[in-house]
Amino acid sequence: xxxxxxxxxxxxxxxxxxxxxxxxxxxxxxxxxxxxxxxxxxxxxxxxxxxxxxxxxxxxxxxxxxxxxxxxxxxxxxx
Length: 79
What we know:
Elements: H1 3-30, H2 32-43, H3 47-78
Pfam family, one: DUF6868
Keywords: Membrane, Transmembrane, Transmembrane helix
Domain DUF6868: 1-79
């Protein structure tokens, strides 16, 4: 596998992950009351705990996207 192919793969992976993160964030923001109620009833949790779990999910997803997709892409572009 050449460096150009690897750079392109990490670039597209970064784009897809950032897109998924943006869609997930927008969906949770737009439907937060309804979806928090559904998940609270489904998992027998308090709505405040569900909202904290959403925040934790988005934070971890953002960190994983940066560490495993964006940073390798920029590192390969710099080489």
